[in-house]
């Protein structure tokens, strides 16, 4: 696609939306590390300098996209947690169910997990103070929503809900980096299967981590 110069705020918002949508489509094809401004500008039909008028850097685009994808995911997570919820279950059973839902939901969203994995070490660099401030406010808002959902289904977690949710997202990001091995590593695993003994399968690894966190946070009966 190609664009004429934006003359109004509405046109500028359309350009921003096109940049975010194009980046989102790229992430369905490639990991975060392979997304470049050059390829993004080519696909969106804008010069690189034009893209930088709407977002100050590649990292700023990806941070905005991460915040938006997280907000969309939380709407879906609310439905996933509500489906089949049973108030008659014990606290331990509800903790296990929460871990099942969270691990399944996050493992199905590998792009979001990849963004979480890149957040601290990559995406929060090469951005201005204002961009980081905007991102952190959005992150805290999303974290509060997630904590509220978890607390609704597992009230025993109490004031530790936000800490728990932060740990879940951090672990999802960390584990995702190991759940999609590059071709060279896959070749090694195929030739020497014994070396794949600790290969990470995202969903069960994430579920184990979530259960471990919950066991430490739930009050002792």
UniProtKB/TrEMBL annotation:
Membrane-spanning segments: none
Record-linked InterPro entries: Homeodomain-like_sf, HTH_TetR, TetR_C_34
DNA-binding region of this protein: 36-55
HTH tetR-type domain mapped to chain residues: 13-73
Name assigned to this protein: Transcriptional regulator, TetR family
Record's keyword annotation contains Ligase: no
Claim: DNA-binding is one of the keywords in the record: yes
GO molecular function: DNA binding
The species this protein was found in: Lentzea xinjiangensis
One Pfam assignment: TetR_N
Annotated keywords: DNA-binding
